[in-house]
Amino acid sequence: MAESADTLPELLRRCHRDELLPLAESLSVNPHGLGLSALANNCALSLRRRGAHVLMNQLRRGGDGPPYAETLVKLCARQKLPAPTDIAAAERSLLQWWAVRAWGRMSDDQRVRLTEALGLTVLPAVPPEDVTTLTVRGRLGELVPWRVGVAMLFGPAKLLLIPLLPLWPLLVVVGFIFLGRPRDENLLPAVLEVARLRQVVRHRVTVGVVGSPSCGKDAAIRAIFGVDSGNIDPIAGSTKTVAITRLPDATALYVVNTPGMGDVIASVTEEARQVFDHIDVYLYLINAQGGVQERELSDWQKCQATGRPVAAIVNKIDTLLPADRQRYLDDARSKLSAPEEDFFAGAFDPLPQLSEEPIGLEAVRGWIADRLVGLGKDPAELPWT
Questions:
Q1: pLDDT tens, 97-109?
Q2: In what order do the strands lie in the sheet containing 205-211?
Q3: Among 80, 277, 281, 336, which residue is least crowded by beta carbons within 10 Å?
Q4: Cα–Cα distance measured from residue 302 to residue 134, given in angstroms and rounded to the nearest whole number
Q5: Which residues on neighbouring strands pair with residue 205, listed in sequence order?
Q6: In the CATH hierarchy, which fold is given to the domain comprising 204-381?
Q7: DSSP result, 134-160
């Protein structure tokens, strides 16, 4: 199984910093003073180091441990699980294996939430006998050498050590190999937490709506998402400049409404920054009555610089004379150097005498859904799906 493009550090950087704290705790990583990127890197490194023997880490990788994909393959093998086809499948297999073991200790409510949240098949009320047997054997395999060693060092049998003195160097080596081995009881909780974070990142969708004042951002949010942003209390941010709204009845669908990408964004709170830094797709609105000026071009380029998909939408196209529209659109797309598939014309609050419904709405909605799927997101919470 090859390491996918979605490497472990990249996945963790797509989380919010607060979401990484349980993982950091399970890996004994001190988060104090670490920003999101540093904390993500430290957690990923600590997890990888736990995936192989300490000596092998030093000899083969300078102490960094094996790639995350290799760690998962070996962890699955030690639990007698089938070889996984990819990283997500490996995490899922380990999660289901753990759930079978823990099923009897969970309440009915916990079982329902687990199966619904992670898409697992219905698990048996009693763990299969082969899983139970493997668990018992695994525990015995760990306990027997330890108990024998304690008896030899501290019990009456210590006199038997005298004839074994020449073997002490070998025993030290064997002890080092035993103590430095991967400890699945410490590694598995971290892997399960990563699996949970992967689901969080996959299902969370954040759409950034950017544009100069009077370009129609509120009308766009109302038309596209079916909510009136003026009647919803935004969360986390400087409400006079950036509004971050979780849509009603949605688990993790956020809309970020901002007038630009410059100094305004630099002034938001840290909590708002964590959401803003994880925008999945951008909708950049341009007022058809104002055109592409220096500010619009600068903000468009800053949106593109994030590496996320960006759509340019010329709003209020209904206010232009029909004979002038195509010429205006060609000029705007040329100034932005926007790809044709990322360029739209619309009117989210059109003149009543021209249209009773928003113009160009379905094309924009289709673009959002397609780009989210391309990012590996689940667009199920989008209102129109």
A1: 877 777 676 677 7
A2: 243-246, 253-258, 205-211, 281-287, 310-315, 343-345
A3: 80
A4: 55
A5: 253
A6: Rossmann fold (3.40.50)
A7: HHHHHHHHHHHHHHHHHHHHHSGGGGG
Distance CA 30, CA 46 (A): 11
Spatial contact of 209 and 217, defined as CB atoms under 8 Å apart: yes
3-state secondary structure (DSSP) of residue 290: coil
Q: What is the mean pLDDT of residues 71-96?
A: 85
Three-state secondary structure string covering 219-254: HHHHHHHCCCHHHCCCECCCCCCCEEEECCCCCCEE
pLDDT digits (tens, 9 = 90+) for 256-267: 888 766 656 666
Q: Encoding tokens for residue 372? A: 């989210």
Give the three-state DSSP class for 18: helix
Helix (H, G, I), strand (E, B) or coil at 43: helix
The domain spans of the chain are: 8-199, 204-381
* Residues composing the chain: 385
Classify 310 as helix, strand or coil.
strand
- Average confidence score pLDDT of the chain: 75
